[in-house]
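Kindly inspect both lines:
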Amino acid sequence: MGGMALPKPSAVLELLKPVTWFPPMWAFACGAVSSGQPLSDKVGLLISGIVLTGPMVCACSQAVNDWFDRHVDAINEPQRPIPSGRMPGAWGIVIAIVWTLLSLWWAWQLGTWAFGATLLALALAWAYSAPPFRLKKDGWIGNAACALSYEGLAWVTGAAVMLGGAMPDAYIITLALLYSLAAHGIMTLNDFKAIEGDRQMGIFSLPVQLGVKGAAGTACWVMLLPQFVVVALLLVWGLLPYAVAVLLLIYAQIPLMMRFMRDPVGRALSLSALGVPLLVAGMMVSAFAWRNAPQHLVHSLAADAATVSVSFTQSLQESFHAKPNL
């Protein structure tokens, strides 16, 4: 790097923000569960996919964001690796590019579907932060891109990888899209810590566009409504116990949201820490619901019956052709 000082490993790790890896890793696991496939037979594939969505793609998106947000972070979070000088020179963008290439290489090992989904996720990550698109300049569009990448795309990819590259059914895609919409509200919670810097740098996050109270109310409703739709769908699909479980998780979030509404800036982090885990727990409940849905049970029984029928036919054929033992 032409004599440029090397960043410390701790600064690199902080740039990649391990704390942000959990949502896409969790969503991929939800997709794998919802696929209905036996996970014990594909443990290596499951682990590889989780690594792809978290330490690879999500970490890459964080590096890209930190580089193109370095001027905003100098106002909002001057302790971050790049504005603080702990990530010297152009190392931020170098790491972002290297991590992009590593993510694509890793995805290629998992098949066509994983590679295509990773390519789309990385394109969204760069478009979110980098000019000329810089989707994050509008809170509606930017948060939608993040939510789709972190939740919906990761969920559908997890299911597709477990299905051997086949397109997941409409039920799985519907659940993934609903939780992507709920994740839009989660992304808004992150914007409350950066209002002043966003306003100065011309980034129209929802707190900047709608005001603190308006953005807080919008975030709560955007998180809640898709979950209620999930409950309704689970009831329609005949999955009452799972619908009740998701509903209870929703009602556990409401007091936390009411507390958040009284002081959105001061309590956004609290809602993220306590309320969001309840929401994502509902994701896994919904994944198990579809995994155990009657449709999957019927398919499983049909497959078992077909296996028994083939075995029985083969036995008859072997008996017919066997020579009598005289």
The CA atoms of residues 255 and 275 lie 9 Å apart. The first helix runs from residue 9 to 16. Confidence is low (pLDDT under 50) at residues 297-313, 319-326. The radius of gyration is 23 Å.
